[in-house]
């Protein structure tokens, strides 16, 4: 663990990653299928917490407070989240078999980019050691 340079009450840890979604049920079903998730909870009618391994949680959120005047919300237009795999070829094939929209081929034998049903760009990378 890194020792902070300055004293701060803010922890050096990510507690969760928010993904903007339009339809919470559709999004939670899709992410559960793609990531092999079981469980999870809905809070406040607009937030789904996905059970993830590691320090950060995946939070699917319809984000009612952040929508524009006609009810739209921006999606990630650059890969903002990286999911890991031990087998990049198998992960790519799995996504193809599940009709996931692939944005790139496998690049540098290390990663590929895809879209979720809301159009968010996400990435899968081969885990290194």
Automatic annotation (TrEMBL):
Cross-referenced InterPro entries: Glyas_Bleomycin-R_OHBP_Dase, Glyas_Fos-R_dOase_dom, VOC_core
Transmembrane annotation, as ranges: none
Protein name per Swiss-Prot or TrEMBL: Catechol 2,3-dioxygenase-like lactoylglutathione lyase family enzyme
All residue ranges annotated as the VOC domain in the record: 13-127
